[in-house]
Structures are given as C-alpha cells and as structure tokens.
Design a protein that fits this description.
With 184 residues, the protein is mainly beta. It has one domain. Helices cover 13% and strands 46% of the residues.
C-alpha cells in the first residue's frame, strides 16, 4: 500500500538521474526528471492552453571575497500544446522564451499522446552548458540546475488563479560542484 503526503492533484517534480560532465571541449549535463501533471494542468492543456516548462543552468565561479561570479548561463523552453483538430500534441523546444516575433531556433515535434510528449520533456541529454575555453581548469565552480513550469507564460486569468495553488507547482532545483581538472 502506498500513499502520498502531498495531497490529491499535487505535481511534485524530482530528478531521478543527474550527471554533470566536464571534458576537454565542454561542460554538459544529462538529467532525467520525474513528475506527473495534475488534473488541473492537464485539463487546461486539453482546453488549448499551452504550458511552458523551463530548464535553466548557471555556472558560477566561487569567490571568497564577493558574491560568486556567473560564468555561463543557458535555458531551454519546452512549449507543450494540444492541437484539437489533429488530436495531437505539439512540443516546441527553444533556447529562448517564446515571442510574438517567432525569432530564434526551435525544434518542433508532434506526438500522438501526452505521455510521449512529456517523456521528451523529462529527458535532457548531453546539454552543452559551457565551452572549455570559458573555464579556468584550476578553479572550482558551482553548477545550478533549475526546472519549472513557467506560470508567467500562462494567460493572465490563469496566472492569478495559479498563485499559491500546489497543482501548478512543478519545479526542481539541483546544485553541484564542478571540481578543477586533474593535473596532467
């Protein structure tokens, strides 16, 4: 018998797999997320309201005399929408926030089921965070990873209604240290 202390409809997120790699060319991250959409979020999707999930990374150089210095940041925006005419799910993955101008590069995919679309969102594979030339090999860095449902991208009435509601809270944060490269 299993039960949840979170209550009905709460959408907690967790990292079930996480790997931060540093090689001679780049620093990359691989992550496996686990979350379920609440019935409220799923219902909004089925009514044609797109949901935007955001994965963000930041690499910080530690400094004892001041705040840590941000060396590299990156973001991925996953815009998930249901297409009622075709009864398919559309996922747009881009490096910037969705805008009215439609500028920037984006990967667009269609899926038959919501589960297939969510599986693509939950799997982040070898995402390049920083190039080796941006890092000092002798310095230790702190790496921050954040994933969340971006409530700021919802229509205004939903933003107001979602404040403080646990069924709209899908987020996870992870912090790791990136050790200096071993002496060669």
């Amino acid at each position: 018998m299993s039960f949840s202390l979170l209550g009905k409809g709460h959408a907690a997120a967790e990292l079930t797999g996480f790997e931060l790699e540093r090689d001679s060319e780049e620093v990359s991250v691989t992550a496996q997320l686990q979350f379920e959409l609440s019935s409220t979020v799923e219902e909004a999707l089925l009514k044609g309201i797109p949901m935007v999930f955001v994965a963000e990374t930041e690499l910080l150089r530690e400094r004892w005399y001041w705040y840590d210095k941000s060396v590299a940041t990156s973001a991925r925006h996953f815009r998930l929408a249901f297409q009622p005419l075709t009864r398919r799910w559309r996922l747009n993955i881009s490096s910037g926030a969705a805008s009215a101008t439609g500028q920037g590069l984006a990967l667009n995919q269609s899926f038959d089921t919501l589960q297939q679309a969510l599986a693509a969102i939950k799997r982040i594979s070898r995402w390049r965070v920083a190039g080796a030339n941006e890092l000092d090999p002798a310095v230790r860095y702190r790496f921050e990873f954040r994933f969340r449902l971006d409530l700021g991208q919802l229509p205004r009435p939903f933003q107001i209604g979602a404040i403080g509601q646990s069924e709209w809270d899908i987020s996870v944060v992870r912090s790791e240290f990136l050790a200096p490269e071993a002496a060669k």
